[in-house]
Amino acid sequence: MKDKNQISAASILERETPFLLLNRDKLERNVARLREHTDRLGVPLRPHLKTVKSVEAARLILTNGKGPATVSTLKEAEVFSAAGCKDLIYAVGIAPQKLARVIALLNNGTDISVILDSLEQARAVVEASRQSGVKIPALIEIDSDGHRSGVVPGDNLLIEIGKILHNEGAELRGIITHAGESYHCKSMQAHQAMAEKERAAAVACAEALRAAGLPSPVVSVGSTPTAHFSQDLTGVTEVRAGVFTLFDLVMTGAGVCHTADIALSVVATVIGHQRQKGWIMVDAGWMAMSRDRGTASQAVDQRYGIVCDMSGEPLGDLVMIDVNQEHGILALRAGSQQTLPDLPYGSRVRILPNHACATVSQHAEFVVVRDRSEKIEAQWPIIHGW
Amino acid sequence: MKDKNQISAASILERETPFLLLNRDKLERNVARLREHTDRLGVPLRPHLKTVKSVEAARLILTNGKGPATVSTLKEAEVFSAAGCKDLIYAVGIAPQKLARVIALLNNGTDISVILDSLEQARAVVEASRQSGVKIPALIEIDSDGHRSGVVPGDNLLIEIGKILHNEGAELRGIITHAGESYHCKSMQAHQAMAEKERAAAVACAEALRAAGLPSPVVSVGSTPTAHFSQDLTGVTEVRAGVFTLFDLVMTGAGVCHTADIALSVVATVIGHQRQKGWIMVDAGWMAMSRDRGTASQAVDQRYGIVCDMSGEPLGDLVMIDVNQEHGILALRAGSQQTLPDLPYGSRVRILPNHACATVSQHAEFVVVRDRSEKIEAQWPIIHGW
């Protein structure tokens, strides 16, 4: 999907808009910050690559540029495996029809685990393992916070699933959980409590498996908030997180990062003004930003994003208040006493997004810069599809 | 972006999920319905291809498979021009840096008009016309409903822009407007009134140009609701509309179509159950559906979409209540007295989306079927990027 019209631009002030800007220095600092934290707690990180969906970005994020890693699609698994990352968890409950591609990856030398939370899935994995002669590694998903999928801690279903996997031909790897509700925590205390709840649920379930004579070498936990606010990871063998690499306004609103940590922005050009309304029109709409409005339910609603100048500094109270497919409307926040900044026709802005994963997925590539530089250092393709 | 894992599937019951299903018969009926209406009013249709973003779909939508058409990006313009559609309006206010690609299209035999609503844009278009020796065709955008961009009717700015374009080296083509507020009309009377308001504003502005001795051969109006509810198009030379081709739940909620007219759905597989909560988990999340929640502000909030069986029949009150990146949660609507349908692990559903344009843009291709058929007739690539 690389656009031949774009290859010659050497500067972010020249490249045709809209495009997706990535500050590589911020990415590297974000990764170093979480690695320091999990190193201190003595647990390895298994980054979730669904946020960046890029081989080049993954090389900066992963240990030795290789792994371990987490993916959200088998397409990601195939691309990252081909790029040398051979230690993967596919962290979406396995569908029966997807097992053939999992087996192809295993046969290709990729250590990929599936996750599941039902007897039906365990039977499908066992059946596919038997038919292929490949023991498919499987983690049992635990519902540590009521957020989404998973076996409820204490339910004997855990042991039943574990027995099918272990005794009937698959490879029971252990326990996995994701405290997705942590996105809604409103204080450091709440984040810390959620991290402990996630840890405790996963460890208890691993202990339950072991007490039943079943193996649980892996105890995998994580979300970006719980990964950052965890204080103790006793019994946990790895931590997963994804959006921490780029950060976004939802994570700022959740108190996990500062606006200045956000490595991602969308560059847009001013195409008009509706001066009597205080509106500035730009050539980036939801196609470039995504329709994600994750901050709408937070204390500060950032609408479709905070507007910055081309150095990345926020322009006061200017936000993207609304979007159509290829139009964005910039205006001051409701109640602002500031004056609308002077952004003449043809000038450029950078917009910080609500949700990095959603905004990345709207683009064919990252346009990569360093701190305090307008020079385009690289263009990194983004993986799409399933 | 065609996925080699998918090429061999012959049936929508076999192809790996999630994927984007298009019922070609519904598309053709939707197009015929609006064509009959605008033919009766004696005005040609200029379909907006930003919804389908597909050369193959465009061949069914356009007159003689060629044109005229409307586009939202220059990438669309270049792809559709190469496919033989040479009569285009690029319907986003022109940015100065994009004029070089417009000139390249004009030099390549494509009749492409730009749109604008400011003196600065008119001067940029005139300057680019002079420098290239190509008179760039331009339409002046009118703000008929306060929705987005455009010169306010009655503002003398219209004549000033017209004079610059006409006298200084560009080609003044006339007037364009889009009553985007029509999406929020709640009755047939309101739709009809909005259509008349759109028409009257555009025609009055064209008359004002002519009264000032300026040409206005084109008077272009349209949105999917106003196009369907217009009763008189006197003075209008063409009607634009896009989402009418596929329709979606927002258009159903606005009273423009029935649920059965929606030509688009996302096919997903059941990957789990949270039975105590009444949840069914599927392998389609916002990556497959988009984050668009256009029905949230309508009388009936359809959450992330209406769930249908594989024949396309809605499964009672079952909707996709929430999504994560690659997970969807199906449940009965709040307050429903129905019983959760029995959808075992591995079964498939079709989900009707809020907003066709947004859902299409999440996918690499349409998987095309006919009425009452599970056979995959074709796979049509979708255009991405700018």
UniProtKB/TrEMBL annotation, chains A, B:
Keywords of the record: Lyase
GO annotation terms (biological process): D-serine catabolic process
Matching SUPFAM superfamilies: PLP-binding barrel (SSF51419)
Keyword Lyase: yes
UniProt name for this protein: Alanine racemase
Organism placement in taxonomy: Bacteria, Pseudomonadati, Pseudomonadota, Gammaproteobacteria, Enterobacterales
PANTHER family on file: D-SERINE DEHYDRATASE, ZGC:162816-RELATED
InterPro entries per record: Ala_racemase_N, D-amino_acid_metab_enzyme, D-ser_dehydrat-like_dom, D-ser_dehydrat-like_sf, PLP-binding_barrel
CDD domains, per the entry: PLPDE_III_DSD_D-TA_like_1 (cd06812)
GO molecular function: D-serine ammonia-lyase activity
Pfam family, one: Ala_racemase_N
D-serine dehydratase-like domain ranges (all copies): 263-370
Species, as recorded: Rouxiella silvae
Family classification: Belongs to the DSD1 family.
